[in-house]
Specification:
This protein is an all-beta fold. The chain is 0% helix and 51% strand.
Amino acid sequence: QVQLVESGGGLVQAGGSLSLSCAASGFVFSIHAMGWYRQAPGKQRELVATITSGGSTNYADSVKGRFTISRDNVKKMVDLQMNNLKPEDTGVYYCAAAPVVIALVKPRYWGQGTQVTVSS
């Protein structure tokens, strides 16, 4: 059974930091590309960061320089370090997996999401 379980969300003031984690199980984590999406209230889900099986990363312009995605293939986890948070970063953050990074536009697997709220 495939599972992606996010943790680490919460409430933080603008300018603060949060670290999200996603624990994966039920599929071959090391050969999958991983990504973090977010969905703000009333908006479409947005892909904010990706990491290939080999560790290459990419970011949406809105988070570049503030967010860092990383993965641990032994622990089967992918993290998202978020610094200098802004109110517009508020939303539900989802972990996602796909066989290759280009397929993250329509992920094979999704987590249940974790809420991040940034107060001004």
